[in-house]
Write a structure and sequence with these properties.
By secondary structure, the chain is α+β, with helices and mostly antiparallel strands. It has ten helices and 16 strands. Helix 8 (181-196) runs antiparallel to helix 9 (198-212) and helix 9 (198-212) runs parallel beside helix 10 (285-301).
Length: 302
């Protein structure tokens, strides 16, 4: 389990029209306002496709999940909102997460209805996620997420003026029913080395180290065909090594990059594993060095 922490930000926002004027942050008038803003653009804000709002958990369980979604890697996502600070938001979310794990078929049926049969068949039950969006969190909240073997993100929000929304990750924990990182990496290395060779596996290890080391809040999610690196949303996807190269997909707009044949490629209209419109092809350690500015740019976007 990996825990990453943020801290209370002193970031100030200014309008520069006619001189610098500070735009004071404020909380929403009600929890429903925050929920409505996030649900309206959940894929942009959280990297999660919206499925349902106020989802009832039945007469026995007797609850209503604020938002249900499916993230970029196929992981089920529960989002719970609080207007300000609420000590119960994490426990409430975990309560619903336990219900979700006991009702997998119901969730997959919902995914099939909203997103289609292909999405429903690819739900990643090894990594269900809880995202708590609130006005703030206490140090006890940050400590509490470390004690649970679940994937939990604590996200602080602020409203600025009448049409600006700020989100900040306070803490992020990758957990779930995944095997330990070292064991997973060793197993993947053994399986892939027989086919692709040790050189590509060594290169993949170097990329993994660079992406995880970009900053706080980086979680890694294993899929069958790629490994995703998340900072609330995916910022990089590393595909399984090919015979002579690695492919990494980044959340960088290809229009902002001077594309180099054999190194970078615009795949915005091309089907591929993982997420991201910029493909980076890596063949040598030198290529990894060349790609680091692109890695950092994608991390910053996420």
């Amino acid at each position: 389990m990996v825990a990453r922490e943020g801290r209370c930000s002193d970031l100030k926002l200014y309008s520069t029209k006619g001189g610098a004027t500070e735009i004071a942050p404020h909380l929403a008038e009600a929890e429903a306002e925050v929920q409505g803003l996030v649900e309206a653009d959940m894929e942009t804000l959280l990297g999660t496709r919206f499925l349902a709002s106020e989802y009832g958990t039945g007469p026995v369980h007797g609850g209503r999940i604020d938002s249900l979604g499916l993230d970029e890697n196929g992981s089920p996502v529960i989002v719970e909102y609080k207007r300000g600070v609420d000590a119960g938001v994490i426990n409430q979310g975990l309560f619903y997460l336990a219900w979700l794990m006991d009702h997998r078929a119901e969730f997959e049926h919902l995914v099939r209805d909203r997103l289609g049969a292909t999405a429903a068949s690819q739900v990643l039950w090894s990594g269900p996620r809880l995202i708590c969006v609130a006005g703030d969190f206490t140090r006890y909240d940050v400590h509490a997420v470390r004690e649970h073997r679940r994937s939990i993100d604590l996200v602080r929000y602020r409203l600025f003026g009448s049409d600006l929304l700020g989100l900040e990750t306070v803490a992020s924990v990758s957990g779930g029913m995944q095997v330990g990182q070292r064991a997973r990496r060793q197993a993947a290395a053994r399986a892939a080395a027989d086919v692709q060779g040790a050189a590509m596996m060594e290169l993949a290890g170097a990329v993994d180290e660079v992406l995880l080391g970009l900053g706080d809040g980086v979680n890694r999610v294993e899929r069958k065909t790629y490994r995703a690196y998340q900072r609330l949303r995916n910022f990089a996807c590393l595909c399984r090594p090919q015979r002579s190269k690695l492919l990494v997909y980044l959340k960088v707009d290809p229009k902002d990059v001077d594309l180099v044949p054999g190194f970078t490629r615009d795949v915005s209209g091309v089907g591929h594993h993982g997420t991201g419109d910029l493909e980076v092809q890596l063949r040598t350690p030198r290529d990894v060095e060349r790609a680091q500015d692109l890695f950092r740019a994608s991390y910053a976007v996420a």
